[in-house]
Amino acid sequence: MTEPRAGVDVGWNHNVHHHPRLCRLLAGLPAPALDVGCGDGGLVAALRASGTPAWGCDPDHAAVAAAVPGARGRLLRGSAESLPVPDSSCGGVVLVAVLHHVDAALALAEARRVVVPGGRVVVLSVARARGWRDLPTEAADVLAHQVLSRTRGRWHEPPTARAEPTRTWAEEAALLQRHLPGARTRRVRLWRSVTVWDAPA
């Protein structure tokens, strides 16, 4: 739970906490990774620091202009529903807390379009709890947040808009399975899930 970040100090938040995991999942790609909805490029910088060539894209001009060191000159303007890159040009595509901001079906179709055969799509999702079955995980997330908030230093507020998720965890998993058949999804700490889909070679 106190795993260090992947070589780049951009502060801490619930998404940044998972950067080391995402860097591992996107290591050894056959082409550069693309971070969709990259904000100020914290994950792009972390990927590059871990040895994975990476670019980012975001529709928010202010976020791209505020690129962190390690991501400057590597961020493009573009939306998740219409990525500004050619077909089969990315070894990996990662979407971090993006799907609840956009048309998820279009965004996932775009991710599949731009990833190379044998590449990988990774999605870090946010969803909402529903019913008593989610209560133990919600309680564990609250505890993790309290512990990490005391140990991980300054909070990083991304320069991007916020939106509350509308899908439940079950609905999010079903959506991902429809558009990324065979994907593997698991819940992780801090109100997130990770989905991994490997494109057919």
UniProtKB/TrEMBL annotation:
Residues 34-123 form the Methyltransferase type domain. It holds the Pfam family Methyltransf_11. It comes from Nocardioides bruguierae. The keyword Transferase applies. Keywords: Methyltransferase, Transferase. It comes from the Bacteria. InterPro entries: Methyltransf_11, Methyltransf_Superfamily, SAM-dependent_MTases_sf. One of its GO terms (biological process) is methylation. This is Class I SAM-dependent methyltransferase. GO terms for molecular function: S-adenosylmethionine-dependent methyltransferase activity. The lineage of its organism: Bacteria, Bacillati, Actinomycetota, Actinomycetes, Propionibacteriales.
